[in-house]
Amino acid sequence: MEFFAEDMYRENIMDHFKNPRNHGVVENPDIGFADNNPLCGDEIGITVKLNKDKNEKPTIAEIKFNGKGCAISQASASMLTEQVVGMRLEDVKKMKTDEVIKNLGIPLQPIRVKCAILGFKVLEAGIFLYEGKKVSGK
Amino acid sequence: MAAYNVDKIREDFQILNVKVHGKPLVYLDNAATSQKPKQVIDAEKEYYETINSNIHRGVHKLSEDASAGYEEAHEKVADFIGAKEFEEIIFTRNATESLNLLAYSLCNSLKEGDEILITQAEHHANFVPWQQLAKQKRLKLKFAKVNLDSKDKENFGTLDVSQFNELVTSKTKIVSVTQMGNVLGTTNDVREIGRIVHENNPSALFIVDGAQSVAHSKIDVKKLDCDFLTFSGHKMLAPTGIGVLYGKKNLLEQMRPFMYGGDMIRKVTFDDTSYNDLPWKFEAGTPNIAGGITLGTAIDYLLKVGMENIFAHEQELTEYALKRLAEFDDVTIYGPSKIDNNKNNENKILNDRTGIISFNIDKIHAHDVASIFDQHGIAIRGGHHCAMPLMGLLDVAGTARISFYLYNKKEEVDKAIDAIEHVKKIFA
């Protein structure tokens, strides 16, 4: 397949990389997790404040990420935070990595897929840990 | 000497006609693995089509021919690196296996408090085996320092050999040093290091990791006075899956086998086993016969072009690349900024910078750089180059790396420079 660097490093990707949305750490987070991609050394940390209304399923009230790494890993994490804010945790868990990649809207070399889904994997693990804690706390 | 005809050489490498993303392949990832000439590919095919059989076993013509070819390959390697005899050449899978063989086989002679000495800039293959051995046996692992003073651009990445005078003590049992760093592109003066090691402690063993150097320059183990030399075939035009351990015969004879099984035995009874002669004692099981034979073919090819010619050609490319990279204020080179033409070594490879150039563009991640290069059809490496401790010292997650071989051209350097311009444009 022939494609061009401009397709992979499109304007919106570069915009998210240079001006990351929801960058930082939320105060008193309900969910917090960080991981890295040993191949590249990309690092992403994600913190989440939940909306936990009594009779409602928890939703993401606020989400922030920080980290360092390649443009793809950082831009995709930034885009992810915009996408999942307000979503129910159970819907986030239903998301597939394929969708995350598709949402980026760029052609990716197989080896770069790991960069693109790092943010999502961190969020997923954070939710898992949060739920694990809740289960064990019962 | 006839003029170096790079276009003629390129005709032997079919893969250089491949198009990547619609553009002609520019292969600048030779420190990872080299491409293979048609002579090597043909030899592999010929082996399987004419003499394929198991060695040292069959009492039939094919087995005789395969055994003879495989043994002859050991002889070719011995001649290539100046070893005295073919018994000193052990075929392994790769340089990593050769180093692990040494770590496993030598570990019995080590005791708590003994010291192993390596450098800060070793590939994981010459790092992790010693680190883990040290943990298991409570040994002390010491590191020779590499000059990482960013103000000293000309000598950045070089190894001051005088420190070995202090570092090699009566407790030092193993010293293992790369001859050509796979990140910094510097060549270490392993001849002088070997001299110091053996003078300070005659019982210490000196290992040279030649994974990068053997492919690019004339090596003579007698002049280096190393006890062991390890390297891989795949970085020097041979297929993957064949590597070499050279060792001094008297040392190899004393060492325990690394693996047990077929072909490495002399006699097996229910009670005990005696081992085969060198080098077979260290080559248990059916080896990579075709790989061994074609490593011989690769050596024939390299010798025909001439190792000195290859080294000179790559030095010319390196000098040109360094000059062009210096056009950018925001490109950091992790290695000496210049080739040192003034050093009057009998063998220049002993102390110079070579055609492995690691760099970063501003703060742009090396994988973004490598991805954009890829769109230009240019294969480079981006990452930590299996030298994570060194990356920590350099305070980078990784670097981009260009590395040359005998078939590269100046025009390809220019294409790489254009790709850097493109990276900068995208990240501007």
Give the SSE layout.
The complex is a heterodimer of chains A (138) and B (428).
Chain A: H1 5-8, H2 11-18, E1 31-37, E2 42-51, E3 59-68, H3 71-84, H4 89-94, H5 97-104, H6 113-137
Antiparallel strand pairs in A: 1-2, 2-3
Helix pairs in contact in A: 2-3, 3-6, 5-6
Chain B: H1 6-10, E1 19-20, E2 23-24, E3 26-27, H2 38-50, H3 61-81, E4 89-92, H4 95-106, E5 115-119, H5 128-137, E6 140-144, H6 164-167, E7 172-178, H7 190-200, E8 205-209, H8 221-224, E9 228-232, E10 243-247, H9 249-254, E11 265-268, E12 273-275, H10 289-305, H11 307-325, E13 331-333, E14 356-361, H12 366-375, E15 378-379, E16 381-383, H13 388-394, E17 399-403, H14 410-427
Helix pairs in contact in B: 2-10, 3-10, 11-14, 12-14
What does this structure look like?
The complex is a heterodimer of chains A (138) and B (428). Chain A has one domain: Alpha-Beta Complex (Sufe protein. Chain: A). Chain A is 47% helix and 20% strand. Chain A contains six helices and three strands. In chain A, a hairpin with a 4-residue loop joins β1 (31-37) and β2. Chain B is α/β, with parallel strands linked by helices. Chain B has two domains: 6-29 and 307-427, Aspartate Aminotransferase, domain 1; 45-301, Type I PLP-dependent aspartate aminotransferase-like (Major domain) (Aspartate Aminotransferase, domain 2). Helix content of chain B is 37%, strand content 16%. Chain B has helices at 6-10, 38-50, 61-81, 95-106, 128-137, 164-167, 190-200, 221-224, 249-254, 289-305, 307-325, 366-375, 388-394, 410-427; strands spanning 19-20, 23-24, 26-27, 89-92, 115-119, 140-144, 172-178, 205-209, 228-232, 243-247, 265-268, 273-275, 331-333, 356-361, 378-379, 381-383, 399-403. In chain B, a hairpin with a 2-residue loop joins β1 (19-20) and β2 (23-24). Chain B is globular. The interface between A and B is medium-sized, with 21 and 19 residues.
